[in-house]
Structures are given as C-alpha cells and as structure tokens.
Design goal:
Elements (H helix, E strand, L loop, with lengths): L2 E3 L11 E3 L4 E9 L10 E5 L4 E10 L6 E11 L6 E4 L8 E9 L2
Antiparallel strand pairs: 1-2, 3-8, 4-5, 4-7, 5-6, 7-8
C-alpha cells in the first residue's frame, strides 16, 4: 500500500497517515479506435479490468469513422493493473474502442 504522510505532526508520538488509492490508471495505449464517438471533448466511462471508475475524455476523433485518435484520463479510477484491457463505452456498440493500461499510480 502507498501512504501519504501529512506534515502536520502534533508530537513525535502522533503521525497522521492516509491510504492513497491504488491501481489508478496513469498511462495507456489505444489498441482499437472504435467508431461513433462524438463530440470531441465528451467524457466516456470504461468497462473491464479489475478496477472501477476509470473515465476518459476524447480529444481527437477520425472525421470519417468518428473513432478515437486521442484521449486523456479524466478519472483514473482505482484497482486496475498494468496490462489490463479496458473498453470505452458510448460509441457504436459493435465497434467499441479499447486501450491497454501501461502504468498505474499508487502501487
């Protein structure tokens, strides 16, 4: 586990620690662009992997297929592992975009 130690120590006997979330998606690689994601700037939930709560914001789409060319992590969620494949909800149900988690925070 990762802990955040606060600097406001009242005495040498008292340390305030708070557990940071683990498995927060940090970096990723798009493995399939999918189709019908619009408009650019929209935020979509994800499905898959061992975690929950990951959401992405689409920053650029293909003008013809409306597939995702680039996106950023809006919320990294918690509980994910490197190498997991996540699916981006909100596009054409038969052609949903996917990405692989390359790195996580808080591990």
């Amino acid at each position: 586990p990762t802990y955040n130690i606060h600097a406001d120590i009242i005495s040498t006997d008292q340390i305030c620690a708070e557990r940071l979330p683990h498995g927060v998606v940090d970096t990723f690689t798009i493995t399939y662009q999918g189709t019908d994601y619009h408009p650019p700037g929209a935020t979509f939930s994800t499905l898959g992997g061992s975690g929950t709560g990951c959401a992405v914001t689409v920053t650029n789409i293909d003008n013809t297929t409306l597939g995702i060319l680039s996106m950023v992590i809006e919320s990294g969620g918690t509980g994910y592992q490197v190498g997991e494949t996540l699916t981006v909800l909100g596009g054409d149900d038969e052609h949903l975009a996917t990405f692989i988690v390359n790195s996580i925070e808080g591990s």
